[in-house]
Structures are given as C-alpha cells and as structure tokens.
Amino acid sequence: MNSNILVQAKDLVKTFHGREVISHCDMCVKKGTIYGFLGENGAGKTTVLKMLMGLLTPTSGKIEIGGGDLRESYPSILKKIGSIIETPIFYEHLTATENLALHLSYMQLPKRNIEESLQLVGLHQAGQQPVSEFSLGMKQRLGIARSIVHCPTLLLLDEPINGLDPMGIRQMRELFLTLVKEKNMTIIISSHILSEIEQMADTIGVITNGRIKKEVTISEVKAKTPTGLEDYFFNLMKAGEQYV
Ligand SMILES: Nc1ncnc2c1ncn2[C@@H]1O[C@H](COP(=O)(O)OP(=O)(O)OP(=O)(O)O)[C@@H](O)[C@H]1O
C-alpha cells in the first residue's frame, strides 16, 4: 500500500439478514487529511465506520489501516483509533474525568492527557461534574474528548457536531483542523452539515446505496461547482455519473 495512505477499504460488502447494505465499497484516505464522508440517510456511512472500527465484521472485503490488515492487527490497532459513533454512552454517575480515566484503563494506557482533552473540547470546568448533569451538547463534547484522549492516529467521527451550539460547532471545527495539523491525526468525518464539511475536508467521499460513488478533493469540488459543496452534492445525487 502507498505509504501516503492510512485507510484503504477494498471491495467491502456487509449483509444484514440477507440484505446487502454495503456493496463492493472502496475507500481510500490519505494520511494527515480530513475525509468528509457524505451520503443520504441510510446510505451506509455508520455501517462503514463501524467496520473501520472493527465493531462490525465485513461479510467480505478487506480493510487496511496503516498498511496492516485490520482483522489481523486487532485489538492492538484499536489503540491507534479514536471514534465517536452514534450517541456516546457514559457511566452517568461518574465524573467526566473518571469516565476518561476509565476509558484509558480499558485500553491499558496510562492516565494521561485527560485535562488537556477536556480543555480542548471546552469542558475543563466540568471535569468533576457527574455526566448525569451534562446537557446533550456537553455529552457530545465529552464523546469527542474520549475519542482523542489516547492520542490516536485515526479519528472516526460519525456526525460529531450533532447537538452542539453554534459556538461549539466552530470550536470543534477548529479542534479537528488543529488535530490534523499539530497532532498528525487523520480524520474521517460524516455529517449532513455540508457547509461544515466544506470548511474542513480535504477530500469528499460520497456513498450511495452502500457504494462509494465519488471520491474527490475539495479543490476539484470547487472547480466543478464554484457555488460550493451543497450544490455539488445535490447535482451528484440528481445527475449521477453524468455529473462527474
Ligand atoms: N444492525 C442492522 N441490522 C439491519 N440493518 C441495518 C443494521 N444497521 C444498519 N442497517 C441498515 O443499513 C443501511 C445503512 O445504515 P447506516 O446506519 O449505515 O446509514 P447512514 O448512512 O449512517 O444513515 P444516516 O445518515 O441516517 O445515519 C440502512 O438501510 C439500515 O437500515
């Protein structure tokens, strides 16, 4: 595998109860980039992200992360992946700090970076509060803190800005850009908020009916559709392959 590539999925298939929801899906994510993962409701984004995280086993196909086969490198590779997939669940009676400490101990890692991670997501003053007292947005921020506390190289973020206020959305966008620039992380982020993806992503992957329809750099998107990503996405959905 090309050394510039961190994640490569080849010919992925996932079947649930005989129904193929991911169909021969190929995906390629370069190191040190943000990959905006787009698709309509039910297109297959969460299912692919769960397979990249090892939470679901593909029916067939191959996933390589950092040049190694995900299945063969499991579970040690988990230490290099951070994720927020669907609604994050916490021990509600424990504090934010205790939840992050528990996460690190599950991963058999030293209790480091807890304060820094809470600071990065704007929860530094809430570290000693039980999670049961957190708002939806605070839980989402804590989920992001948990995804980065072990300093992963790959972040899988499934709609991570759900529930955040406008300030929070901007702070998280800036955080994700900083993590890539300063901590060398690679991020795959799914979101329906195309304006956010447009401001962050280097590459866009569009999935339709379980298959990547288009992988394109953001500069190609802008060249093709000067009015921006939203129009590019809608034109692609409407016109299909004729548009690309
Ligand atoms: N555990 C499961 N059992 C059966 N079908 C499933 C399961 N998980 C997902 N699916 C189906 O797989 C398809 C893809 O779902 P997925 O959640 O991956 O889509 P998505 O692109 O993340 O959608 P959304 O944008 O609505 O979150 C859907 O048709 C869904 O019903």
Description:
By secondary structure, the chain is α/β, with parallel strands linked by helices. It is 36% helix and 26% strand. The strands form two sheets. It has a six-stranded mixed β-sheet, sandwiched between helices. Strand 1 (5-16) and strand 2 (19-30) form a beta hairpin. Helix 4 (114-120) crosses helix 5 (136-148). The chain is globular and about 55 Å long. The two termini are 26 Å apart. The mean pLDDT is 93. Adenosine-5'-triphosphate binds at residues 16, 21, 39, 41-47.
Could you estimate the helical fraction of the residues in percent? 25-40%
Shape: globular
Q: Which small-molecule species are bound to the chains here?
A: adenosine-5'-triphosphate
What's the main sheet like? 6 strands, mixed
Which class do the helix and strand fractions yield? alpha/beta
| Widest beta sheet: strand line-up | 6-7-8-3-9-10
Q: First CA to last CA: what distance? A: 26 Å
Rg, please?
18 Å
Mean pLDDT: 93
Quaternary structure of the protein: single chain
The share of residues in extended strands comes to: 25-35%
Poorly predicted residue ranges: none
Based on DSSP secondary structure assignment, what is the total number of beta strands? 10
What is the H/E string?
EEEHEEHEHHHEHEHEEHH
Number of helices: 9
Keywords: ATP-binding, Nucleotide-binding, Transport
Domain ABC transporter: 7-234
Pfam families: ABC_tran
Family: Belongs to the ABC transporter superfamily.
